[in-house]
Design a protein that fits this description.
- This protein is an alpha+beta fold.
- It has a four-stranded antiparallel β-sheet with strand order 1-2-4-3.
- Helix 3 runs antiparallel to helix 6.
- The longest helix has 19 residues.
- It is globular and about 45 Å long.
- It starts with a helix and ends in a 5-residue tail after the last helix.
Length: 180
């Protein structure tokens, strides 16, 4: 089984906290989002909405992601993509209730992973940002009050002095069990 290409993608993708400030083209953001939206979801509910922010408005969004010294680098991201919770379908809602599982949260995590991997494959750096002022963010993005925005993904071009760092992970034996 040959998985070299995806292996290289996984080894290369990292959280970037040093963007060079160049704006990402709308065409590239659209393509990355289009690929991310192919992510699987429970009962194919696709309970999400992406809101991509380009141009000067991204400074307003970046301000919603900062505070207490967090995410200062977001101001230099070339694009910001808000991952918004959308409506699930009836089958997924019933399954979630019956199995006491938050399928929507799972689905948004899967979508976010697809988004950052698609970005890396397209030559963009990324960082998943959970620190945010969600109320202020909803206002800046003109999103209804009840819609949750669990994460925003910063996209852009890494500064040249931001090399790929070695992955630091728990020992494999602590994180995988194989039963026969």
């Amino acid at each position: 089984m040959e998985i070299k290409d995806i292996e290289q993608l996984y080894l290369h993708r990292q959280s970037c906290r040093a963007f060079d400030g160049r704006e990402v083209s709308e065409e590239l953001v659209r393509k990355v989002c289009e690929l991310a939206l192919l992510a699987p979801s429970a009962c194919n509910a696709q309970p999400w909405q992406l809101v991509a922010v380009l141009g000067e408005r991204r400074k307003e969004v970046a301000a919603c992601l900062q505070g207490m010294g967090m995410n200062k680098f977001a101001s230099d991201a070339g694009a910001l993509v808000a991952v918004c919770e959308g409506r699930s379908n009836l089958t997924a809602k019933l399954g979630a209730r019956m199995k006491d599982t938050d399928f929507t949260a799972n689905d948004l995590g899967i979508l976010t992973a697809h988004l950052v991997l698609a970005a890396d494959a397209a030559g963009l750096a990324s960082c998943i940002l959970g620190w945010r002022n969600e109320d202020k963010l909803r206002g800046v993005l003109s999103i209804r009050e009840k819609v949750r925005i669990p994460v925003v993904v910063a996209l852009g071009y890494a500064k040249e002095d931001d090399p790929v760092r070695p992955k630091q992970r728990k020992p494999f034996g602590e994180t995988l069990t194989i039963l026969h």
